[in-house]
Write a structure and sequence with these properties.
This protein is an alpha+beta fold. It is built from 7 helices and 4 strands. It has a 4-stranded mixed sheet, covered by helices on one side.
Length: about 200
């Protein structure tokens, strides 16, 4: 059975858990005791030398990094639905995975960590980055229901979690009506699972 090592409050862990549920894949969720430093233990570092969650174990396959895990699950189990075969569309999906790892992480993700855990942050810079990101997302989603192509993909899931957690980042999504509608579309997918603190469905 697939095993997912996670922090329950991690948005990066959530996006993997979400795809596992949307794919209806049997899996075991293992909560790593971050407060006790379990993610820095020798056993965990053997799976991910960076000491970060999520980590996915699927038989002999051990993967770190949420974007990489989404790609693996889509390719191995998605039957062509979650990652397009077309080269151009596939490249566009990869572009949004990069946005998830960069702008989303440094904007809404960083603000959430700051307000929940007091992590030091240049708040005005992160707020500007978040506003710029939400503006781009809103413009993109004004033209289509999903970030790439005509159906949902791992591009949507990669970006979704920390945007949906915007209330904990003290970001107001009300001006971004197309983003809000997109959140509702994802939350309506069969098998959807959320987490505490997310924008209400």
């Amino acid at each position: 059975m697939i095993k997912l090592y996670q922090f329950p409050i991690s948005g990066n862990s959530h996006k993997v858990r979400l795809l596992l549920n949307l794919l209806k894949l049997p899996h075991e969720v293992i909560n790593v005791a971050g407060a006790q430093g379990e993610h820095k233990s020798p056993a965990f570092l053997a799976m991910n030398p960076f000491g970060q969650v999520p980590v996915l174990v699927d038989g002999d396959v051990v993967l770190r990094d949420s974007q990489a895990i989404l790609f693996y699950l889509a390719q191995r189990y998605g039957q062509g639905q979650w990652f397009p075969a077309d080269a151009v569309l596939g490249a566009q999906v990869m572009g949004w995975l990069s946005v998830a790892a960069s702008e989303v992480s440094r904007g809404p993700g960083a603000l959430r960590l700051h307000y929940l855990f007091g992590r030091p942050l240049d708040v005005p810079a992160a707020e500007k980055l978040s506003a710029d990101l939400l503006t781009v997302l809103n413009q993109q989603l004004a033209q289509a229901d999903w970030l790439v192509g005509t159906q949902t993909s791992i591009a949507d899931l990669a970006v979704y979690s920390y945007i949906a957690l915007a209330p904990q980042a003290r970001l107001d999504l009300a001006p971004y009506t197309h983003v809000v509608q997109w959140l509702h579309r994802i939350q309506a997918l069969p098998g959807y699972v959320g987490m505490d603190g997310m924008f209400p469905a």
